Amino acid sequence: MRGTSAPASGAGRMAVTGGAVMVAATLTNGLAYLVPMLGARHLTAADLGAMATVQALAAIAGVAGAGLQTAVAVHRARHPHAPTARVTISTAAVTAGVLVAAIPLIVTSLHLPVEVVALLVGMTPPVVLAARWLGELQGDQRFLRLALGMGVLAIGRYGGVIGGLALGAGLVGSLLTGLVCCYVALPILRLVAGPAAPVTDTGRPAEGSASGGSTLGLRQVVTASSATLAMLVASYADLILARQLLTPAESGAYSVGTVLTKGALWAPQVVTVLALPRMARQDGRTRRAAWAVVGACGAVLVITSALAGGLAFRFAGGQDYATLGRYAPVFAATGACYALAFVLVNAQIASGARWPSVPLWVAAGGLVLVAVFVAPHTFAGIMWTATGTAAAAALALAIVVRVTTTRRSPSAGPVPLPVGPPDLAGQVSRFPAGTVPN
Fold this sequence. Notes:
The protein is mainly alpha-helical. The protein has helices at 2-42, 45-78, 85-110, 114-139, 143-166, 170-193, 218-245, 248-266, 269-280, 284-307, 309-317, 328-350, 358-373, 379-408, 424-429. It has two domains: 2-197; 231-408, no CATH class. The longest helix is centred in the N-terminal third of the chain and has 41 residues, at 2-42.
């Protein structure tokens, strides 16, 4: 009886923590979508365009924070208690420095007021600094605290802007309120993070404490950031191409379809968040399980889109787009393939690969070349090109992961056993119920 109740209990805890992270991710995305919705009601057309541009730039600048969180999570999973303050400060400083240097270019090329760009620059460092604690919580597998931290950061990033817009503060006033809230969120997030977990879930001693272990550097952060940026570029390239190659009406219809793509891409992201720390310890079983779960989610979304495509397009864009429902499963399949690619890219980051994002960059470049010079410049032409690209990227990454895993497999497992007389009972007891050392 004990052997069956423990795995069930572990599955229950995983469901609770996974649900909490899902709620936090939904809150983040919901608040981000609320900004332009309120902006459309409280800003002039010019200021609304400026707000949308600032959001796009903030998303690009936020890649550094996402990369830092991933790098810290992987490092902490391998080296519990390892210090991460120095690389966090360096990442924030480099990001802010790049943005400051780019202020003249942004102001002139995007026709934004200098005070608006200055506020954007000021809002970026706290987002990057917050990524340190989120990464530590993720790497230590303290997922309930991670979910709470994600919620705090989301409210800090968007709550102030939303409040400013609702109160009629205008573009500059709303961004200024958002800037203040970003910095207020930092000490709250620090309290949420709390002290580090004393041991990992496997019960292993801390390999990388303050007194020793590997040091996390900017190279790992750049590698993870590049992968995040590649994911964004690859998954948004078809939308940009549609804007360039189609008529305005067709481009608008295509943008509605990409809502389904983004939903299928980001819906199972909680799986990657939960799996990353274990994948960092070269847990092949977790990698395969994550791939299977994300694949199953994608299959369900594609089938659902095929059965209720008109409803999906009506929900995403309104009654005018319901006739495009036959294309819904294709857009969902594109997102599902990119979701699988996202899992595999994170598996490569977790394994320490130097260039995990190369297949995605190649895929994005191939998408542009095929869409511009080969495929017909039609709604269906760009749609099928995007789907083929996403499938090819997922397949290429699957092959890369398989090859690299095979190369590593002859060399012992991920967790070296201690020297001394074998104590199988003691070894087994060090692992939580439902897991097996690889």
